[in-house]
Amino acid sequence: MENSTNQYPTSAPAQVQSHQPGDQEKMHPEPEIIKSTHKGSDKLKDKVAVISGGDSGIGRSVAVLFAREGADIAILYLEEDQDAEITKQLVEREGQHCLLLKGDISDPDVAKLDIDKVLQHYGKINILVNNAGVQYQQKEIESISNEQLEKTFKTNIFPMFYLTKEAIPYMEEGDSIINTTSITSYQGHDELIDYASTKGAITTFTRSLSNNLMKQKKGIRVNGVAPGPIWTPLIPSSFDAETVKEFGKDTPMGRMGQPSEVAPAYLFLASDDASYITGQVIHVNGGQIVNG
């Protein structure tokens, strides 16, 4: 979906999906993936980008935008084959290659195998976008089972370590790692306690890794993006219908954001335009002030 009128829906109808991370094609309205006004200018020409959770939502928007800017793409996804195939088609429509890698990257062996496959296919990695995640709405901490707690951490933060450890030896000075954190890392969230905790870990991971890689003189930049309420499959698959109906209305802009409005932050951080930026987080959240 491309937007040509620059008018965005304020909210979405009440809806739910029963399975995470959700299917984009079942959403109504469907999220906007890329702005029709964006004209590629080869900012990422000849680069190879690996994007976890790249089959839908923010990951899909990043993949298509990166492709429009000249990058070949590798998408790591859990099991949403239809969403992944659509993303592949959208990337190829931009004239770039797209490798789909299905599997659970919370397993370190799968993460290693995926990076190996990317290297076999493309021969290099220039950009790593750590984006995969899950969230489960619980109204009180007593409702967070030990199983849920473990799954949230194993999905949201562990794979960032696994993928980054495998990719860094093949990345060079000027390459970029971008981690998806969240506004909840800074403000917390009363019904997403475990999720917000993982996002806090991701913010600290970003800052710590950036310092480490600069001290190691590798020249690899590490930054993050902290989205606010963005309309992605994770929303109807993790919140109740009434929450979905009100989603994003409490922002200063009074509406939910679209993946197409977040992806340009990733593009900026991945490109040479951000050559003097590392250890930072860009906040794309509809005007909420976090001072972080």
Automatic annotation (TrEMBL):
Keywords from the UniProt entry: Oxidoreductase
A Pfam family recorded for this sequence: adh_short_C2
Biased composition range(s): Polar residues: 1-21
InterPro entries according to UniProt: NAD(P)-bd_dom_sf, Sc_DH/Rdtase_CS, SDR_fam
Ranges for region Disordered: 1-28
Coiled-coil ranges per UniProt: none
GO molecular function, one term: oxidoreductase activity, acting on CH-OH group of donors
Stated family: Belongs to the short-chain dehydrogenases/reductases (SDR) family.
Stored NCBIfam families: PRK06701.1 (NF005214)
Protein name as it appears in the record: NAD(P)-dependent oxidoreductase
Organism encoding this protein: Acinetobacter lactucae
